[in-house]
Fold this protein.
Amino acid sequence: MKTLTVDVAVIGGGTAGLGAYRAAKAHTDNVVMIEGGPYGTTCARVGCMPSKLLIAAAEAAHHIDKAPGFGVYPGGTTEINGREVMDRVKRERDRFVGFVLESVDDIPAQDKIDGYARFVDDHTLMVDDRTTIHADRIVIATGSRPSWPSAWDHLGDRLVVNDDIFEWDDLPDSVAVFGPGVIGLELGQALHRLGVEMTMFGVGGQVGPLTDPDIMAYADKTFSEEFYLDADAKVEEMVREGDKVQIRYRDKEGESQLRWVDYVVAATGRRPNVDKLNLDATSIKVDARGVPVADSYTLQTTAPHIFIAGDASNQIPLLHEAADQARIAGDNAGRGKDIRAGLRRSKLSAVFSDPQIAMVGESYKAITDRLGPCGCFETGVVSFENQGRSRVMLRNKGLLHVYAEQGTGRFLGAEMIGPNAEHLAHLLAWAHQNQMTISQMLDMPFYHPVIEEGVRTALRDVNAKLKLGPEMIKHCMDCGPGC
């Protein structure tokens, strides 16, 4: 049995683990990082990067399909070669992973401990029953994994998650995607546009991460026009028959339907990897899901010397959030008793569907929970259906809501579906983090003709509703037509 004594032990070698390790090393050299699986990040291996590669291929095919709307008719029949699509996805994915592994290779060998860690007590970790680590401070950065109902286990290898999709050598003929959330919408729509027969089922009517009922209804309608989406499906039975899955369900009209698919894609959420850490051996307080309770500014758990970062914290499972949390948790672990509150940026999330979905700052639900549905805020609205630049590009689908506080006129947040939502959201997130008012945002420059002019329309709408600006003009011409 090997025994080590360290200042800081980081459990996990992904985005949060690597970030926490580097932040802690700025204060002490006596840091180890423990990883039981492959080093690297969920983002590079099975998350944001390979999914965007698949989406990029789907967009290329979709642009060809849209060309006749401009009077452009590509010659011949568009052929989608699934093997070539997946070959590029995997090649580029491996390239991104390689960059991450290069940084891991630069970490001294004595700082890397291979194996799975579990707590023995508040300061002691056991790694694969062969190494005991006594640590003054500990950072939990164990990430998360896909989850699905155990009743689906009988589907065997016909049940896949996003991790499995990026190992395919070819595209299947048909899939059923369960879960119209971020992962489900992105991968499901991409597969559909690449010629895969795709059906999408949800529960409870939820579409994407949205909380604004009007924006969600618009998203439901828009995606349903492109492919079969039932956000509140009544699935009666799923049975594996050979290399197919038979799904019996009630359609939106209540009629019984039977569908055969090659794969069932489970996009039903992710589970923090904390269940095998033996947290019962510690003084850490956990929530109802078994996840450690932590301060969002210091990332301290209820055991002051133990911190948690990234997807394992179950706060906001996004790469930029994991990186921020890693810096805070690792920095505080490295400092020891000199605990400091870290910078928490304004919330920003995006779904790379088409149209894209994005959320900034406080969500509609968070605002109404805090102020009540008839509370002291107003909503500015713009539709992208008649927005000038959006119509020029035949991308004129979408709806944006911006929320502002009565009295102060402070910008509270936004939810949207629409063209270039990822870029619009960044502008709004910067404004939110700077605690700008709607009037201050309207003082910013807007070029013509750009999609961003739609943001200004929504801001003018909410400014008028706040009684801080003039009533909206039906066809404003101060910067040209269609703004």
Remarks:
- The chain is about 30% helix and 25% strand.
- The chain has three domains: 2-146+271-335, 150-269, 348-465.
- The first helix runs from residue 15 to 25.
